[in-house]
Amino acid sequence: MKEQEISYQELQAELAEVKAVITALRRGEVDAIIGKDNVLVVRLIEVEAALRREKDFLQKLYNAIADAIITVKLPGRIIEQVNNSVERIFGYKPEEFLGKGGEIIYANREEYLRISEKIKDALEQGIDIVYSEHYFRKKNGDIFPGDITISFIKENNRPVRAIGVVRDITERKRDEEELQRYRGQLEELVEERTAELKAANEQLLHAEKLAILGGLAASIAHEFRSPVFGIQMVLQEIKEKASLKKSEQKLISLAINENHRMSKMLLNLKDLYRPSTDTSAPSDIHQIIEEALEIYRKKLQISKVKVVKNFAENMPKVPIVADHIKQVFLNFIINAEEEMSASGGFLTIQTRVLGEKVQISLRDTGHGIAKDKLNKIFEPFFTTKLSKGGTGLGLAVSYGIIKNHGGNILVESAPNAGSIFTVELPVTGAKEI
Amino acid sequence: MNNPSNATQKNQGGKYSLRLFVADGEPNSIKAKENLARICETHLKGRCDVEIIDVLVDFEAALKNNILITPTLLLVDPPPRITIFGNLGDTGKVMSALRLLYKGEV
Fold first, then answer.
1. Could you please report the per-residue DSSP string of A36-62?
2. I want to staple A221 with a disulfide (CB 3.0 to 4.6 A). Which of A213, A232, A269, A376 is the partner?
3. In chain A, positions 191-250, which contact chain B (CB-CB < 8 Å)?
4. Whole-prediction pTM value?
C-alpha cells in the first residue's frame, strides 16, 4: 500500500513537471529541448513569429482566392472549413456552410452522384486530384455551371480530407456559346454572301449576254429595215396594180401581212438595248399603269382577268420616258392576260416606295414558268407562246428599257403558282412638279 | 558530468546549491542567468553556490539530471530537490519555489 502511495506521489511530481515544461514552452521561455541522443535548440519566439506570419499570409491568400475553397472531412464529407469566396459564389456565409454535407453545393442529386463516382474511381486508382465540370446550386436556388478540382489529404495512406476548389464558369460558358453563335452566323453570312455573289455574277453574265444579243439584233434590224421596206412597197404595188386571180390576191395579202410583221419586229429590234434618245421627265407611275391597263381593258374583260390595284401612297414622280415604261407595263399585262385567258384569274399590281427607288410588281395567277426557262425569258426570240404568234421580243425589249432607266427587272415564278414580275426604278433626281 | 569551472559563486555555509542548465548564447538562457544572478545577489547574498551547465557542451550532465529543456534551474541543496523551468523572469514564483519567500516579501 505504501509503495502505491509513493508511486502516486511520483506520478504527481512527474505530472507537475510536465505541466511546468508545457507552461514554459507556451510562454516561449525554452531555448533547447534535450532528447535522448541530442539537443534540439529551438528559437521558439522566432519560430512562432515566423509561423504566425506564415499563417497570416496563408489565411489572407486563402480568403483572397476568387474561387470557393471547401474542405470536407472524410469519410462523411462534412464541411469543416471554407474560405470567404463561398459567399460570393454560393451566397452562403462561411459559417452557414460549416457542418453541412458536401452535397449542398451541387445542383441536384445526379450531379452529386456523378462527382461521388469520380472521387471513388480516383481513390481506387490512387489519383490524388480530380477535375470535373458540374452544375452547382446557390443558396437562392440559382443553378450555375462550374468546375471543381478536388485534392485529397491522406494520413497513413487513408484519405482524411478532401479540398474542393470551385470556380464559377458562367461567363466562360456564355463566351463560348456566344463564340459558337457568332461562328454560326458568320458561316451563314458567308454562305449568304456567296449565294448573292453567285447570283450577281450570273445576273451580270446574263446582262452582258443580253446586251451583246441586243446590239447584234439592233445592227441586223438596221440593215434589214430598208430591204424589208422596199419589199413592202413592191408587194403593195403588185396588190394594187397587177391583175391577179383571187387566190394570187390572197397570197399577196399574206405576203404583205408577214412582211408587215417582219417590219414591226425589226422596229422592236432596233430599240433593243439602245440608249434611248428620248428625254426622261418626272412622271406619275400610277397614271402610266392606268393608261396601259386602259389600252388592254377590253381584252382583260373578255378573258375574265380581274385587276387588283394596291398602289402606294406618296408615290414620288419618277424620271422616266413615259411611253417606254408604258410599253413595259403593257408587255407584262399582255403576257399576264395570255397566261390567264383560258380560265380567267387575277392580276395584282402593287407599287411600293423603297427609299431611293420605287418598286412595281405585277402578279398573275397563270400557269407560271418552269425553273429551267426562268433564266431565258429576257433573251431575244425566246418565247413560250410560239403557237400564239409570240415573237420573243416583248420581255427582251422591256428588259432593255428598264436597264436604260438604270432599273432592274426581277421575276419569281413556279409552275402552276403564277408569276410575279417586279420592276425597280430609281427615283434619284425626281422632282415634284 | 558537471562542469565545475562554470561555478560562479562560492558556496557560503552550503545553504543553497543551485544548478542552472542553459543553451549558451540563446536568449532565454541569457535571461535566466541574468535573473538568477539578480536573485542570488538580492536574496541569497553569500548563501548560494551556482553551477551553470551549458547543455550544448555537456550533454551528458543534462541526461544525468533528467533535464528536458533549457533553461532549467535545479535546487540541489537543501533537499527536497526542486526543478524550475523557464527564464526565471517571475522572481516571486522562483523565490517561492526555492522556499525563499517569507511572509510579506514578494
1. SS-EEE--HHHHHHHHHHHHHHHHHHH
2. A269
3. none
4. 0.39
